[in-house]
Amino acid sequence: MSEQRASAATTAQQRVQVNGIELNVLFAGQENAGPTVLLVHGFPDDHTVWRKQIPLLVQAGYRIIAPDTRGCGDSDMLPRVRDYQVDNLVADLVGLLDALNIDRVRLVAHDWGAVIGWRLVLAHPQRIERYVALSVGHPNAYGQGGISQKLRGYYIVLLQLRGIIEFLVTCFNWFGFRALTRYPEEFPHWKASLSRPGRLTAGMNYYRANPGMMFTRGLPAAQVPVFGIWSSGDRFLTEQQMLDSRLHVTGPWRYARLEGGNHWLQLDTPEELNRLLLDFLQ
Predict the structure, then answer these.
(1) pLDDT digits (tens, 9 = 90+) for 133-172
(2) Residue 119 sits in which domain range?
(3) I need a surface site. Which of 38, 49, 189, 195 has the fewest CB within 10 A?
(4) Residue 39 confidence (pLDDT)
């Protein structure tokens, strides 16, 4: 593990060897200064999506670990679609904790990161002290979310068109991508990151490797304290799939609805989200 660069005295990015690949990981806060919080981003993001949370969490005394998941940000890409199956993504996070000699963390995850986070909580509850799931509910609740959730997830079907959809969403200055995300403030960052060779396809491979996520059922309940947070402006996920997650949590369950925020609530409504995070993590 070699230090790549540092942006502040208590913040640095490092390359960490995990499961035969290298993950780019942001570390913030002083090591052993307080509880560790693991932040896991979704698509089309990388660790920088947490830029409005990290300073506040460090100030509150937490040590932050925010990886770029495989294929994303500056982490290694893999060539095969099956390399992005959710079990591999979970194994990366477990391997990261093992490489850093961390037994337990407080987990905060969003979008695809929340999908991975739920599966991590279910498979390795002893590694997670408590879990904040942003936008995406328990896999059973999401998979059985009814026709409304299936309609909102239409893009998952489109993303199965390998090669074709990459071409379509990037035509005319990424018009299709901009129409799908509808978040112009973040678009320049996404374009710069995903325009690099292979990066857009790697992100889409998360959906191609796990098409069954739309119909998941039969997974166990979460045994750790869970805080589900959903924003009313989310165009991709229904509130019901988050509310129904309470049926799949045997540990303490808490829910909050953020009014007006879009899908990227950590960027769009950071003040409200940060207040909730600090309250629950403590």
Answers:
(1) 999 999 999 999 999 999 999 999 999 999 999 999 999 9
(2) 2-281
(3) 195
(4) 98
CATH of the domain at 189: 3.40.50.1820
pLDDT digits (tens, 9 = 90+) for 29-46: 987 778 999 999 999 999
Q: Three-state SS string across the chain, please?
A: CEEEEEEECCEEEEEEEECCEEEEEEEECCCCCCCEEEEECCCCCCHHHHCCCHHHHHHCCCEEEEECCCCCCCCCCCCCHHHHCHHHHHHHHHHHHHHCCCCCEEEEEECHHHHHHHHHHHHCHHHEEEEEEECCCCHHHHHCCHHHHHHHCHHHHHCCCCCHHHHHHHHHHHHHHHHHHCCCCCHHHHHHHHCCCCHHHHHHHHHHCCHHHHHCCCCCCECCCEEEEEECCCCCCCHHHHHHHHHHECCCEEEEEECCCCCCHHHHCHHHHHHHHHHHHC
What's residue 33's pLDDT? 74
User: 0.90 exceeded by the pTM?
Assistant: yes
